[in-house]
Amino acid sequence: MVSTPAPAQPRRQYATHDVTNQPPALTPYDASEDTALMEALHREGAGWAEEGVRRLGLRAGSAEAQEWAEQANVHEPVLRTHDRYGNRVDEVDFHPSWHHLMRTAVAEGLAAAPWAEDRAGAHVARTAGGLVWGHTDAGHGCPTSMTYAAVPALRAQPELAKIYEPLLTSREYEPGLRVPTEKRGLLAGMGMTEKQGGSDVRTNTTTAWPTAEPGVYQLRGHKWFTSAPMCDVFLVLAQAPEGLSCFLVPRILPDGSRNTFRIQRLKDKLGNRSNASSEPEFDGTVGWLVGPEGRGVKTIIEMVNCTRLDCVMMSATLMRKTLVEAGHHVRHRSAFGARLIDKPLMRNVLADLALESEAATTLTLRLAGAADRAVRGDAGEAAFRRIATAVGKYWVTKRGPAFTAEALECLGGNGYVEESGMPRHYREAPLLSIWEGSGNVNALDVLRALTREAGTAEALFGELSLARGADARLDAAVVRLESQLASGSESGARRLVELMALTLQASLLVRHAPPAVADAFCASRLGGDWGHAFGTLPDAVDLDAVLNRALPGGS
Ligand SMILES: Cc1cc2nc3c(=O)[nH]c(=O)nc-3n(C[C@H](O)[C@H](O)[C@H](O)COP(=O)(O)OP(=O)(O)OC[C@H]3O[C@@H](n4cnc5c(N)ncnc54)[C@H](O)[C@@H]3O)c2cc1C
């Protein structure tokens, strides 16, 4: 008699229990599966880049790229100040994963490539690429951002720009110390902050003395923060005879000798650990003047405007990445008899996060569109970009830490454990509101722009007026904003800029997002009927509509 075999039992991994109710790996996934991002890409004039952004999104969510991101943060950069014979080398060694991330980012045009493209929308395409590639690692976004941002500042010295711009805008990543003009591609850093003052760069003590050669100076002093010290060239502020000035400082001089760039140590940072941030010292260091002597802040502000946009972009990408992780977890985890995604209160939390994420993404790409059109000579967009980038930098980066903490909590205890990746994203978030103008400095910059720079208030209110009449709560908020603006005080700057940011985000969603999303945003951010934590959306909000739009694969 033939006996029927017993049904195969799943092989137990543990003698004591089976592993159940843990989500499957999210990776591989498509980081470009983001409806709000794709719609904004088209709206802001870079629909032609969709295929590339989708390809990069798949790459970002691949097991390989996610592994690079993890490894680059586990194996942190190491400073070698001296060689075995006692000679100074001032080199930073990186794990191969860092170089893979950098090579991909540069090749995909996430550094300075858009400046070499005539095509309208090039800067939008780069920002969208950054939004999806940012699902990997934030640290390497620092040198790519500074390289992007250095170009418009360098243009203040056309003869230097002629030599270095083609190399900065190259899509070739060529690490290592060599004569810059002999490399296929260059990276740029920035040295402003000193021990006695970061926001207040007028207190810089590094000096710059002209040499006999026109435009060539010798720098002496230090910087307290200079990230990505392995870059090829740096824009550095120093006090010249006519006042604070901007200089281009190469690490290797044209004759192949080392410029003095002593890296004293690397910072032991809360996050951003794949990236190196250093304290360099200059002593007889050669620097080439960029822009007029004494106008260093005006020159380097061109760079800061671009890195500020990237701070908004990096915060938005952290939001989206952690939302995707949270959505994945709660779809596969059950508690108290049902999947977490089906629990009404969890749906409220996720929908609230989804709203915040969409508002951040939409604003990021609107700012990128303004930058793109400003570069091509649109004065109205230049004025809008000036005010709205500072507003967005203040608010979106300020929301990052609270957002990533809440998304992390959706994973329960798993979210607090390093291997989930969530602690890394959480630690990254506060940095974006510190560098390139900390919260207060940004808020005060908005006040300064409004009072001193013609056309900025008109540009902002012109943008808000495009949504007039579509939502009563938004209309009321704009009226409130106008009256607060009239009595704008320094101590009330954060309050004012927050209201500006919320009305701007609401107006964009009212104009471009599905009505349920716009309604939920206005109800919870402008309507006066909301709590302070995420997950406090009012009952009338259509949670299903918000979640179905935000989460890949539905909810
Ligand atoms: C990881 C990391 C990397 C960095 N990389 C670089 C780099 O590559 N190059 C570079 O040049 N710098 C870099 N920085 C420095 C960074 O830009 C500064 O730390 C930042 O601008 C703040 O300056 P500060 O640290 O001197 O703080 P401060 O200027 O002393 O500010 C301290 C606090 O006071 C607030 N504040 C300042 N002025 C006012 C005011 N008028 N009213 C009210 N409040 C005010 C600020 O908002 C802040 O909260 C880096 C910083 C970090 C953390």
UniProtKB/TrEMBL annotation:
It comes from the Bacteria. Gene3D superfamilies: 2.40.110.20, 6.10.250.600, Butyryl-CoA Dehydrogenase, subunit A, domain 3 (1.20.140.10). Residues 190-283 form the Acyl-CoA oxidase/dehydrogenase middle domain. Its cofactor is FAD. Transmembrane segments: none annotated. Residues 21-175 form the Adaptive response protein AidB N-terminal domain. Keywords: FAD, Flavoprotein, Oxidoreductase. Residues 294-450 form the Acyl-CoA dehydrogenase/oxidase C-terminal domain. Residues 1-29 are annotated as: Disordered. Belongs to the acyl-CoA dehydrogenase family. This is DNA alkylation response protein. It comes from Streptomyces coacervatus.
